């Protein structure tokens, strides 16, 4: 793959008004070699079932994907994005067809609209875009994959903002427009603050209904369309300004409905999300947000009154205590997670087009914020693909990727269709784009940065600044090639002011390490170059970047983390291409440990600890100061709520729009804590914030993880004794007078010892003798007694596996390096003894579930990607250490440093973490396949089928 000089844009020079297209250089591709010829393709079968009902919900055989793509990515792309009727010849069956359908449409439109200087530049653009999609470097948002290149309308936008005026005609039109957007599978937001309050008069002399009453009709419409056309809830956002006279009723609306849900549930009604009785409850199809002004927040800070204003005259018609209203907002959010807050002053201070109108609302996930009746098409970069083998960030390639993606996104507006004429007109006039990223959490961990750390925030801010700076630089170059956006002339001074604000915020980043300093230096350069180019050409786009949830497309790119989120958990659930599923330890963890300077033996021991416990606490050899690198969204070391807020504040100054993210709080969180988070978010310059307190909502289906207390199911033949009956007495099975035994000498941390293990004839371990210390010493006596106790228990039927589970990872001195090539590090003598016994006497499958492998198995994993013996390998439990290994054939399967079988009841990472923690996380079940979902931005996404709870 060749790297050429920077992709450049030749702005119009010479004769006034003459435009020249872009010159595109190769960055990822090789001249004369098509990207498809550089990868290994394989055929797979995709079968998707609802695990609860056993019903097959999707089946397509023989689909074609690169061998490097996971089964999960294959399944989601096949089920979600391949077009054509199942079983017909017109049905897409290869990733090549999907990519070609989209990329060739973009390239054709780019040629037609003058984006490329020559046909060769168009060809290079086509190949570069194809290569990045093929290698999961980025992805367009879902509507692009759904619609582009098909006979359907070419809708490319996922985010819509509508508007409604204080007339019945406008209100009814709102219902219609919103319904058409829902019908197409997208969502929309709008601000209802223009509607008169229930405390104001109509021109006829009657009293106005107020916006809350009209919300009922819209909610019912959304619920009906959802029921008729999809299984998920409709995605919508309703916003009300804090100075609206009906704001208190708006704040309490969903909290009162939640009380109703509890009462009906206690009366025996089915109030789960999707239950037959939940439809009787109102306002469940929208996210609610209060738009708070700086004036209101200052009144909260100072403890002064605040005026609610008439919608018709703007006169103050009621005065309220600002702190009391702020408390009511926090109380309602504590009770039911709604409303969220949108900080109007910050939002409009960063508005590039204020002369054309204020920013009043957002899309349902709160990342897109711009003019009413507008839309935004999104694309997200996979940050981990830019991390080089030496753990440095590939700044040059990142810049080129941003330039190519922004170019493609802008081209799409030229041919795109829109659900309403006003949305189409506004979008074509302002050309709002939303480039963003995924895998930030994985990148930070891989580079040894804690998510909630100064170094982590400095790197995240630098990368985000480089992304948006490069996007606007390319936008300025596009303006020179094909002209600025139509609304630029009216808003030029405001647009330039916001560009200077971004550049000034970049100057305020304080870097801590070489990596973030390098990225920040590049960001400083591109902001300076871009602003100079923009002064000359203007800009092609009023908006360039947002941070979206990246739920479905994140799975398409095989990302560990979505959007700006940290890693969900250290232990994950993974489907295997050959069938079945495994528990895996995040691949990022070994890379992070090596980056932090740990020896390979220590890395293996830490990874095994994580596989067993799901966290790093007390991991052997791991320094406590490095714990923060492995903090996650959930688990024993979950990131604190303010840690999430601080990350949002670090990256917000470098995002044109906003950030889709919910700050999760434990069930024990107080209203005071929510108030503090809301207030600090305003102080830190965040544009929008939503909180969610665990178990605050009733109307959602939850898994039954509390009933699952062990990973290993009880044997099928085990029968529980009848109530009141005494348990059956165990029978001791003694070993024969002559039996086979094996003696192993060992050294742990400088201390020597011997293990003698006697076995039943062909029937497993039956006795254990351990010699430590001199004959007659206290240590020798204690170990003799311990050996007798273990031996007797083994003969009474206690499985060796139980002892291995209990005694491995026990920590006490002596501990440290051993002389055993299979167990390089031990936390204690007991830890070593039972690891050795497991290797000598337990079958591979059982050892794998415990994360215990021989050195040969670990070497095999490094060479072939799997620990398992391949066909023809004669390795058996009890094989003598050091025995020669048979020749191995490499198996092209991607695996994790530790992979273990999972019980049949587990179908997602969220369910796996529930099992490990012994408690259930508060998340809905996917209504498509029944799998427990996990957070993605301000919604939830299903790992099994890619469905979301409201975000595209």
Folded structure, characterized:
The chain folds into three domains: 8-148 and 363-553, no CATH class; 163-360 and 661-693, Anaerobic Ribonucleotide-triphosphate Reductase Large Chain, CATH 3.20.70; 740-852, no CATH class. The chain is 38% helix and 15% strand. The protein is built from 27 helices and 26 strands. Strands 5, 6, 7, 8, 9, 12, 13, 14, 17 and 18 form a ten-stranded mixed β-sheet that branches. It has a three-stranded antiparallel β-sheet with strand order 15-16-24. The protein is globular and about 105 Å long. The two termini are 34 Å apart. The model is unreliable at 1-18, 227-232, 700-725 and 872-897 (pLDDT under 50).
Concise description?
Catalyzes the reduction of ribonucleotides to deoxyribonucleotides. May function to provide a pool of deoxyribonucleotide precursors for DNA repair during oxygen limitation and/or for immediate growth after restoration of oxygen. Helices cover 38% and strands 15% of the residues.
């Amino acid at each position: 793959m060749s790297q050429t000089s920077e992709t450049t844009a030749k702005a119009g020079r010479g004769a006034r008004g003459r435009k020249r297209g872009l010159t595109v250089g190769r960055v990822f591709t090789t001249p004369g070699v098509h990207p498809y010829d550089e990868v290994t393709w394989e055929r797979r079968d995709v079968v998707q079932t609802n695990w609860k009902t056993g019903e097959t919900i999707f089946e397509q055989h023989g689909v074609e994907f690169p061998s490097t793509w996971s089964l999960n990515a294959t399944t989601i792309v096949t089920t979600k994005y391949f077009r054509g009727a199942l079983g017909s010849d017109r049905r897409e069956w290869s990733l090549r067809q999907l990519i070609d359908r989209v990329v060739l449409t973009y390239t054709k439109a780019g040629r037609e609209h003058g984006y490329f200087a020559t046909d060769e530049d168009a060809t290079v653009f086509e190949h570069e875009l194809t290569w990045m999609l093929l290698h999961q470097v980025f992805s367009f948002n879902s509507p692009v994959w759904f619609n582009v290149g098909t006979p359907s309308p070419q809708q490319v936008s996922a985010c819509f903002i509508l508007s409604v005026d204080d007339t019945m005609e406008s209100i009814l039109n709102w219902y219609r427009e919103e319904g058409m957007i829902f019908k197409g599978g997208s969502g929309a937001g709008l601000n209802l603050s223009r509607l008169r309050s229930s405390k104001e008069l109509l021109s006829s002399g009657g009293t106005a209904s107020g916006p809350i009453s009209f919300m009922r009709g819209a909610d019912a419409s959304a619920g009906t369309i959802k029921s008729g056309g999809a299984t998920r809830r409709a995605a919508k956002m309703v916003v009300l300004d804090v100075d609206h006279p009906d704001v208190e009723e708006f704040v309490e609306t969903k909290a009162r409905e939640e009380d109703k849900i509890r009462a009906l549930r206690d009366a025996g009604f089915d109030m789960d999300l999707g239950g037959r009785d939940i439809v009787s409850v109102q306002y469940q199809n929208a996210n609610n947000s209060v738009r708070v002004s700086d004036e209101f927040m200052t009144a909260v800070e100072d403890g002064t009154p605040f005026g609610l204003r008439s919608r018709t005259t703007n006169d103050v018609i009621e005065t309220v205590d600002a702190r009391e209203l702020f408390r009511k907002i926090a109380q309602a959010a504590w009770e039911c997670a709604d409303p969220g807050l949108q900080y109007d002053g910050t939002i409009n201070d960063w508005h590039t087009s204020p002369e054309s109108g204020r920013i009043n609302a957002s899309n349902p996930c709160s990342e897109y914020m711009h003019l009413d009746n507008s839309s935004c098409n999104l694309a997200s970069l996979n940050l981990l693909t830019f991390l080089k083998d030496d753990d440095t960030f590939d700044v040059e390639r990142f810049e080129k990727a941003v330039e190519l993606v922004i170019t493609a996104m802008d081209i799409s507006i030229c041919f795109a269709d829109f659900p309403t004429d006003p949305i189409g007109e506004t979008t074509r006039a302002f050309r709002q784009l939303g480039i963003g990223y995924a895998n930030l959490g994985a990148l930070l961990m891989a580079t040894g940065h804690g998510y909630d750390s100064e170094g982590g925030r400095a790197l995240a801010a630098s990368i985000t600044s480089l992304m948006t700076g490069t996007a606007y630089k390319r936008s300025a170059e596009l303006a020179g090639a094909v002209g600025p956006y139509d609304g630029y002339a009216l808003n030029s001074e405001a647009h330039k002011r916001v560009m200077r604000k971004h550049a000034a915020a970049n100057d305020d980043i304080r870097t801590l390490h070489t990596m973030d300093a390098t990225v920040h230096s590049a960001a400083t350069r591109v902001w300076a170059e871009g602003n100079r180019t923009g002064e000359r050409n203007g800009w092609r786009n009023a908006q360039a970047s947002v941070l979206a949830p990246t739920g479905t497309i994140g799975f398409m790119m095989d990302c560990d983390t979505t959007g700006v989120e940290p890693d969900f958990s250290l232990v994950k659930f993974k489907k295997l291409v050959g069938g079945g599923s495994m528990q895996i330890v995040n691949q990022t963890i070994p890379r992070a440990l090596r980056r932090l300077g740990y020896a390979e033996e220590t890395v293996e021991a830490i990874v095994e600890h994580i596989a067993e416990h799901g966290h790093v606490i007390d991991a052997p050899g791991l320094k406590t100061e490095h714990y923060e690198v492995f903090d996650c969204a959930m688990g024993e070391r979950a990131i604190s709520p303010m840690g999430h807020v601080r990350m949002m504040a670090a990256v917000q100054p470098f995002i044109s729009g906003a950030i889709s993210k919910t700050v999760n709080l434990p069930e024990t969180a107080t209203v005071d804590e929510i108030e503090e988070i809301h207030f600090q978010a305003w102080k830190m310059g965040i544009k929008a914030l939503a909180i969610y307190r665990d178990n605050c909502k009733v109307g959602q289906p939850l898994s039954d993880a509390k009933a699952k207390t062990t990973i290993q199911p009880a044997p099928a033949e085990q029968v529980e004794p009848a109530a009141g009956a005494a348990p059956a007495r165990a029978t001791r099975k003694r070993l024969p007078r002559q039996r086979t035994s094996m003696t192993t000498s060992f050294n742990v941390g400088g201390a020597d010892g011997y293990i003698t293990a006697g076995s039943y004839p062909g029937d497993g371990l039956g006795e254990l003798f351990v010699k430590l210390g001199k004959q007659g010493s206290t240590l020798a006596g204690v170990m003799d007694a311990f050996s007798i106790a273990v031996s007797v228990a083994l003969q009474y039927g206690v499985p060796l596996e139980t002892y291995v589970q209990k005694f491995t990872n026990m920590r006490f001195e002596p501990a440290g390096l051993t002389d055993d090539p299979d167990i390089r590090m031990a936390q204690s003598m007991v830890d070593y003894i039972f690891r050795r016994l497991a290797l000598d006497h337990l079958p591979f499958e059982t050892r794998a579930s415990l994360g215990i492998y021989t050195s040969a198995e670990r070497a095999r994993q490094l060479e072939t990607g799997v620990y398992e013996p391949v066909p023809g390998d004669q390795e058996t439990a009890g094989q003598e250490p050091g025995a020669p290994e048979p020749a191995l054939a490499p198996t092209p399967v991607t695996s994790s440093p530790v992979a273990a079988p999972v019980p049949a009841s587990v179908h997602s990472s969220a369910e796996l973490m529930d099992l490990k923690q012994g408690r259930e996380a508060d998340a809905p079940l996917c209504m498509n396949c029944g799998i427990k979902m996990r957070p993605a931005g301000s919604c939830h996404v299903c790992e099994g089928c890619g469905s979301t709870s409201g975000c595209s």
